[in-house]
Amino acid sequence: MRAILFDDVGKISIGDYPEPQIQEPDDAIVKVTTAAICGSDLHLLHGRIPGMRPGSVIGHEYVGIVSAVGPETKRFKVGDRVVGAFPIVCGACWFCQRGEFNNCSDLRVLGYGMFVGDLDGSQAEYVRVPLADWNLHAIDPSLSDEQAIFAGDIMTTGAYIAARAGIQEGDVVAITGAGPVGLFALMAARTYKPAAIYMVDMAEDRLAFAERLGAIPVNSTKVNPVIELQSRTDDRGADICIECVGAPPAFDTCLQAVRAGGTVAVIGVYSELEHPILLGELWRRGITIIFGGSCNVQGHWSRALEQVKQGAIDPTVVITHTLPLEEGLKGYELFERREALKVILKP
Ligand SMILES: [Zn+2]
Ligand SMILES: [Zn+2]
Q1: Number of the ligand closest to the Cα of 180
Q2: What's the whole-model pTM score?
Q3: Which domain range does residue 52 map to?
Q4: Measured in angstroms, how far is the CA atom of residue 280 from the centroid of ligand 1?
Q5: pLDDT of amino acid 223
Q6: What is the CATH number of the domain that holds 181?
């Protein structure tokens, strides 16, 4: 089969790769009809995530048709149309039994290297999905591949952090970072009927995009976002801040821009080892800080897909490019140069 292969840090290629076979009784093989390139694929490519086996298949966002199942796969059969989750969970551990799938004690990730299971990824014609009953979700026939694919990753990440943030109707919400996750957090936040959602970013084009999705743009290169949010809330600050950047300055902006008694919910990924915070100040103001950790896909994807079906969220707005799998390298280049917001690949 054809696949996008991770050759080494900084180098991927399109090549031939053995078609996956059923290895465990609870596996499924999915014939991929639509795949996508994720920001975290770039982290692998840049060597920021170690452990990717040279020559293995990259990618973890996909929709397809089940082409084979092991004897212990119960919820899916050959011919079912499915979306896959990027995290591969066991479904049986203490955390999975509580629905905290992101804390699974045997968490693996498709196409993400030997430290998370050494599983081949989904930017290919076929992908093997372990524990298929837990790691695939059926797609309603009314939904297109493009409407369903992000349920396995960024759309549900937005739904997850918006849920964790505890937004109430009438709240003022501020989101830092208008990348794909920030835009999905915005679309998910909207479903809670807040009074206003402010999007803080430095890039005009991304802010314009967020504005079209209903946010009030705040360009942090032009105004101080903390002062801006306070001035628009009788000096209180936002009820809820959702941090989608994963950089300390954005975290600090949220801590300062949130009102006393408010909540900062973080989904951006930090690589810094340490960062000073004013403990006494946070205590005095009674700030709740929630670190979302990795997205609980399996706990939230049904709800995210239902919101798409009802028309509350249109995930296809983030798709800027659709290319054949064979032109996948071009997709990575476009994404790398930030000329593409989201690239879809068709095997
Ligand atoms: Zn991803
Ligand atoms: Zn588990």
Answers
A1: 1
A2: 0.95
A3: 2-153+295-346
A4: 36
A5: 97
A6: 3.40.50.720
